[in-house]
Amino acid sequence: MRDVPQEWRTTASETPFTGNKTSVRTDRVVMPDGSVVSRDYQVHPGSVAVLAVDERDRVLVVNQYRHPVRHKLWEIPAGLLDVPGENPLRAAQRELYEEAHVKAEDWRVLTDVYTSPGGCDEALRIFLARGLSEAEGERFAVAEEEADMEVTRVPLAELVRGVLAGDLHNNCLAIGVLALTAARAAGPEGLRALRPAQAPWPARPFEA
């Protein structure tokens, strides 16, 4: 079973709003019965997230205020692809450095998802990072919401319990910890089956 690319005919398209990083698009799409309907959705550059796990099986998490939902959420390091075609591994390494001043020796693709395909074209790649250590050089200068961000490490099993209990809501964190748990449940072969860090990503093509 796999998802299959497909594009229904669009008769018109406009962009009624353009923001700093994303925009809103309205397409007129032809349905299978021949009718034409409007579909509004957010146009997104794509993003990456990092499930960074240390030698004590703790996950590096950050606590950040998210204004649209009026919550401070526990999350894993994540960020946007800054430019079209940006290498997602390098973007993930940048986010891990900027948000936690940490580097990792071993990187794998954990999973690829569309975060909200009914209303946004955002594609998200979540990496598994292991072999953690302190990054060299000065810490990245944070601002805005990140100036109030807390960084800590939490046992993976505790995060799984929090997701299933409805206490943790960030999609990157939830998908990441549950995907890793599922991979481990398959035994050593489960982790070995994870794709290499530079695996192709059709949703956001890039050059290695």
TrEMBL record:
Annotated keywords: Hydrolase
Domain Nudix hydrolase: 42-181
GO biological process, one term: nucleoside phosphate metabolic process
Region feature (Disordered): 1-21
InterPro entries noted in UniProt: NUDIX_hydrolase-like_dom_sf (IPR015797), NUDIX_hydrolase_dom (IPR000086)
An annotated GO cellular component: cytosol
PROSITE patterns per UniProt: NUDIX
Protein name per UniProt: NUDIX domain-containing protein
Taxonomic source organism: Streptomyces taklimakanensis
